[in-house]
Structures are given as C-alpha cells and as structure tokens.
Amino acid sequence: MSALPVSKGFPKPSSLKVLPGTERAQAAYPYYCQFTRADDERFWFYNSMHFPEPMSAFDMVTAEAAYCALGSANTRVHVLPTTLGIDYRIVNGRVYIGGNAVTDPKEIALRTAEFHQRAFYYYEHWERLYAQWREKMLALIRDAQALPSLELPDFEPLAHVHAGRGVASNHYLLDTYHKTLEGYFRMWHHHFEFLLLGYGAYLTFFAFCKKAFPEISDQTVARMVAGIDAEIFRPDEELRRLSRCAVELGVDAHFKDGLSPEAIIRTLEDAGEPGRQWLKELATSRDPWFNINVGDGFYHYHRSWNDDLSMPFAGLPGYIGRVKAGESLERPVDKLQAERRQLIADYRELLGSAEERAAYDQMIALAHRVFPYVEGHKFYCEHWYTNLFFNKIREFGALLAANGFFPGAEDVFQLTHYELEAAIIDLMLAWSNGSPPRGPDHWPKLVAERRAAIAEWAKHDTPPALGPVPDVIDDPAIVMLWGITRESLETWLNAGSNGSAANEVRGFAASSGVVEGPARIVKSVEEISKLKPGDILVCQVTNPTWAPIFQKIAGAVSDIGGSMSHAAIVAREYGLPAVVGTGSATSRIKDGQRVRVDGGRGIVTILP
Amino acid sequence: MASSPHVSWFAEIGLAERPHVGGKGGSLGELQRAGIAVPPGFVVRTAAFERFIATLEQRAAVRARVESLDPADLAGITACSRELRARVEAGSLPADLQDEIAAAHAALCSDPAAPVAVRSSATTEDAADASFAGLQDTYLWVQGAADVLHRLRSCWASLYSVESISYRRQRGYPEQGVAMAVVVQRMVDARSSGVMFTRSPTTGDRSVVTIEAAWGLGSAVVGGEVTPDRWVVSKITGEISVRDISPKAIQHVPAAAGGVESVPVAEALRSASSMSDEELQKLRAIARQVERHYGCPQDIEWAVQRDSNEILLLQSRPETVWSTKDAAPAARALDNPVAHVMSIFGGRR
Fold first, then answer.
1. Cβ contacts of B236 within 8 Å, gap of 6 or more
2. How many domains are there within chain B?
3. Which superfamily does A499-606 belong to?
4. Chain A residues within 8 A of B208 when measuring between CB atoms
5. What residue in A sits closest to B210 (Cα-Cα)?
6. Residue A6 pLDDT more than 60?
7. Are residues B162 and B206 in the same domain?
8. Under an 8 A CB cutoff, do B330 and A359 touch?
9. What is the tens place of the pLDDT at every residue in A144-168?
10. Is B337 a member of any domain?
C-alpha cells in the first residue's frame, strides 16, 4: 500500500462545526454520541451506507441498538481476534463511526483461542442454530404484535376493577413503551448473532476467488453464492402471483396505471365474488410478505408495503400486462439453480490444481452454509420487526398528538427515546392527577426547530471521514460491512468531498451492463409514478420492494447498498445495469439529466 | 477433391500430422476438425518438397552442401544461401505435382483471381521447436495458379535463408529431417480483425478473454500501426468488464494491384467500436472451444469476413508468458474446512 502525503488528512472532528441555528437540535442527541476534543486523535468515517440522510432524534435509536449488539457479538460473544465493536458519534444529524482494532499480539492470541471455541462452534452447528434463530425471531415478532393498544379511558374499565387488577391503564403506557424499546434492542442482538460470521465465511470465499481469478467481478462471486429462493424474493413473487390471480379471476381490467390502491380496492369490493376472491389472495400475501419496507429499515419514514400499498400496486399493471401477453412470471427456480451449479463448475474447472479445487470446494460449501442467514435475516429484522417497532412508536405519537403534545403523530420521531419516555410519563401524570399535561407547552417549538435543523443539515455535504488516516484498515468488520479499505480512503482524499470527478458518481458495481437515459430522482414512493420506460432510477435505497418498478426502468443508481445487497441481486435478476452505494447520487444528479450507468465498473457519468 | 500424398485439405489433417504438414498446417487442420471456422485451404505436404528437392539433388548437392557449412562462417553461409535460394526459385516442379497443386487451387478458388495466402509451414524431426517458424516467409494476396506455384517455391526457398541456415547449423540439426510444407489458404477480406488471449496478459487470470481489434486487416494491429479497441470479457459469464474504444485513423485493406495498403478510416467509424457485443460473445465461445481443445491457454488471431460478418480463425498458438510462471495455489484444503475463515478474521500475518 502506498503512503499518503501527511498534508492530506481528513478534517479533525473538532473542526467540523454544528451548522448555525441548529445547535439546540444537535444538543438533543445524548452526550455519549457527541464529539469531544479527545475524538480528534481517532479516525472516523461517515456511515453513509446505512444513514445517508440526517437522522431525526428518535431514529438515532437504530444506531444505538445496532452498535450495542454488533459490538457485543464481536467483543464478547464470538471474540473476534482483531477487532472490538464500533463507536459512533452524531454531528449535524450525520452518523460517524470508528472501529476499535486489537493490535497487541498477545491479546490477539488470547482472543484467537476464544474465537476458535465460539465462532467455529457456530460454523459447525450452523443449520441447527439458524433453525433455532428463526424460531426466536418469529417469537419476538409475535411478542411485538401482541403488545396492547394504547388506551387512557376516562374511567378504568369496570372489569379491571372487579378483577382486582390493581394497576391502572396509565402504567401500561410505560410498560408497553419499555417492552417496545426492549424488543427493538433485543432484535438487533438477533441480527448480529450470525452476521459477522456469515459475512466472514462469504468473504473468505470471495478473497479466494479474487486471488485465483484476479479479474472476476464482485457480482459473479455473489451469483455463485446467492440463494435462489431466499425470503427476499418473496414479496415480488407474491406480486407476480397476485397478477396471475387477477387475470385468472377476470378482474385484471380494474388495475389501471394512475389509480390509487384505495380506488382499485373499492372497485374490486364492488366486483362480486371474483373481486372478493382477489382481495382474499391479497390478504394472504400481505401477511407476512408485505411487511417489507421501501428502505433499509433505518428511518421511520421508510414505510412498509402494508402501510402504503402504492409501491406494490404500482407494479401490478405491468405484471398483469405480461401475464396477458402469455408470460408465466414464475421464477424459473430449477433453471436458475442449474445455472448457478454450472457457474460454480466452470470456475472450478479453470483452477490450476486438484489441491486448489479441494480448497475451493471447502470454501464454497461454507459460504453456501452461511448465506441463507446473510440473505434472510433482513426480512425478519430490518423489515418485519422494524416496521412493527416504528408503527408502535407511531401509536404513541398519535396518542401524544391527540393530547396536544405536537401537531401530528409523525412528530414523535423528533424526540429522542429518552424524551419520549418523559413525554409518556408527563401524560401518565396528567391522566392520573387531572391536571393538563405540560407537553403541549414544551414540545411543539422543539419539534419545529428540529425539523428545520434536519432540513438544513440535508442541504450540506459532510466530509466522508474525519481525523488521522490509519496506516492500515485491518478491521474485518469495517472492511466487510462498509467496504472501507486504505485504497478507498485514498480515493476520498484525492478527490472532492464525494470522492470522484465532477461529472462522475462512483459506487459499487452491482449489475453489469452500460445504459444511458434520463435520470429520474425518486425520493419517496409518491414519486414512483414519475418513472417512464427507459428512465434511469436514481434513489436513496433500492431493495426488493422496488422490484415491481424494475420492469419499467433501464438502469438503477442508489445512494446506499453494497454489491451483494438485495438491490444488486434483484438488478442482476432483471439484467439491469446498476450502481449502488454511491452515497450521493440523489443529491448530485438532477432530475432529467442524461446519465450513463456503467454497472460493471460502478460508475455513473453525468452527460453534458 | 480427395487428398493425395502431396496435397491435403485442412479437414483431413491434425496436429498428429505435423511432421508432414508442418506446425501451421497441422494447427489449421486441427481447428477445422474441432468445428472452428478457418479460411478454407490446403497444405502442400513435405512429400512434395522432398520430390522437388530430389530433382535438384540430381543436378547438384543441396543438403550435403548445407551440412558442410561452418556455423561461424557467415560469408560461406551467405554465398550458399544465395545459390540455393536461386536454385529453388528457378527450379521447376514435376509436371504431375504442378497439375495436382493447380487442381487444388482451382477447387479452392472458383474465381481463379481470388486472392490466397501462401504460408511456410516448416517442420523438423522436432516439430515443437517454436522459434523455427518465425524464420519462414508468408505471402499474402497471391492471385492465380501460376503465382501460387511461384510463391510455393519462394516458401521452400526461405528454408535456405541466411537466418534459417545459421539457425540450423548452430544447433547442428541434420538436414535430412528438415522439410517444408506450404499452406495455401483463401484470404479473408476482413471488416475487422484482431487477436485474443484466453487469459489476462496483465494478471494471468484464466477466467477472462482479452480481445483487441481494429478495422480492416489484422496486419495493422499486429504491426502496431493502430491502437486497437480492447475488451476484457469473462470467459464464463460473458460479462464485459473493460471496454476501451480507441480512435482508429487508418486501416489495412487489400490493394487493387495485390498486396495490402493503408487507407484512412471513414470519419464516422473512427471512434466506433470495431466489434459488436454479439461478435465479442462469439469470440468468447470460440476462445473457450479452442482452449478446451488444446487443454491450455491460447493466443489467437482472427478476422471478421467483410461480407458475411463470419468470424474466422487465422492462427492459434499456446500462450507462453504466463504458462511458464508457476503460480502458488490460491489456497490449500484444510483438515477443518471452517479454519479457512482465519484468512479474514485472523488479521495480517
């Protein structure tokens, strides 16, 4: 690795100023995630992959819960030899993170011995532990679904009194809030129980392929490992199924572009038995497969298909058209599986010796063993559970809004989880003592201030990294989860704040092919209707929920995601050039600009 | 037309017959047998050369004259070369041999003026000796049976060039084993042509095919007169990972008077890709087939026929740079397969 000129460091955290007028909003984040002078000595990078937008005060809980769980898995559970957990800080709503590498050889040796007893056990008993994991996750989801609705009746129900419950309704607000928060923190422990080990086994195979075949593309390695029938394909498959049903039941004429889901559902309700039958099929698909959200689950406003049917319904007319044109829309699972086997065999044949082939067989077997978790966990954790969590918090928001704490239910996400507990206790007190709550005098101004701060923060770029550049990035967690290497830091240092030339946006090569077309910036589901055939979709996150619109577009570019992200997998399945994880495409590309997407190299060029 | 002891069509021969048809002829036959399109042609076998030399030997010694030379005596070699080349060029073929070759030419070219290549395809007892091949002559755009017979003798004569004789004398090869077959092959008027390696010349990666191409005949690419377009294509998936299209100002085309001339490329085509994606995929398939057939990475010359857009192979040789570098295996099997993960989790060692 080449040495960097000393003058080309990143700015120190202390030199990164809180934007004028947003100081109070910044101060709302807890003390333990504020930068201090002592942080100047460490290297930090902006986690634009998971948190590409300024985070509201409540959404910060995701960073907190995730890093609590990630760190404990690395540091104390599996005892990774060379790395501990992740520290994080928030400034201007942006999440910066820093790794904790272990460098003392004695400490590494000690941790290696522990790792062998722990991680190796997981690898060797993976199937059993993963089956158990799914049961645990489903139980956790059931617990979250079983949480009571929030009620503050004028008088305690007579039944409670006669039963001698002895605990009044206001207490259950606090109880339910604690359980909601506790479940979310617990879910993240489940999320990280296997994650680093899974990525590690995948990357072991990946690194071998790169050594044996220096020019093999990332996506080819991903294709050798990726599952064919992973959970993450199910939501889109359900849409295809519903499209076939619509044609079979003869109700397909009701699905027209431009009609709202509510309007379509109303016409189906009036369409007699076939219409009711289709709606029954819809209900089957929705539970659980529409519990998928339109983002990566890290922001409260990434709503699920179940909460906003406009995304899945946007895909139905296109699919129905294809069914009527005679396509089956069934994913050819057998054929895809045969192709994957062939791909693995073809590369195997090119290896130089029987010895190398034996190592290849061992590594791909391990990668295949871990991959169902790597692909499957997101549906349960970031989608299903996270939707339940944010929706429960939204219920608290609705209750507080009804009691005048702030104008709307969504405003609840401008409070930290500590502040929300305070507001809940304020309401509990008011209900109990008969005085008006204090919140209506306290929160509206703060909520407005924080909304304004987020809008302001979003207008400004933030440095990709802060502090001194480390000699070497040897932290497997950071390399694995964020793809940050000494080389990528060099690129950041040698270019502008976005790390590339003025007319270029770089990201991960997700799905190969080169295509040109007009960029269509889509920041929310409401904007999906803007897409026309041949457009290049430019969005913050793509994930399988976007699959229905992949049939319309010519290429895709996203701010977040890696080359083995689900977006990449779906894009490959559609044979669509895609560049993901650019960090800045939605802010640097203007709606309507012509762009060239080179999905094989991970480069988007803004054309003159 | 059936083959004879003197003439064989490509489809009838393979590498096993190299002692009689030379390296080039054997390779072209082998490719055609493997189902790979090559410009059609035939080989004038070494038996023809032997008969011709026998007629010369009757008048004055040929082989014994060469063997008597001192490898250090350049003046002697030069004088001998001049004399033998003149004798070969001026000698006449036995009539039946001449008729046989003319008939093969007629069968190859329904239009007698259709251009052909006449290529030396030398052989020794040890036909694998690679550096030998480069010392022999090739004649392109030859028209008519008379000219073919003339160039046939020129090829034979090149066996007695100063360089060839010196080369053999320095190594002490017996002249008895040294013979020359000659390939007569239809010329391809190429729309585009180029070379490809069935592994990466930069990293040695065997999973990619590196392709270079430009407009017109391959001589412009091989001679370095034009910077070719360049692609790296995955051998397995067909994914095109590198796509460098270069400005191509000139191209080589067949000259009206015979031979090759350099002409400017039309403005609109200069920055255009000289190969379509579909053609690149066809090349990939050919590369895999040829490599499989020979069992080792190949260095291949090819051309796209102007009218039919058919891809024809002109030559395939084993790749020599990387195959001599013995790379360590990327990994070895472990008793506990799980322990492979230490390459990721174990830190740098």
1. A220, A343, A346, A347, A350, B207
2. 2
3. Phosphohistidine domain (3.50.30.10)
4. 213, 215
5. A215
6. no
7. no
8. yes
9. 999 999 999 999 999 999 999 999 9
10. no
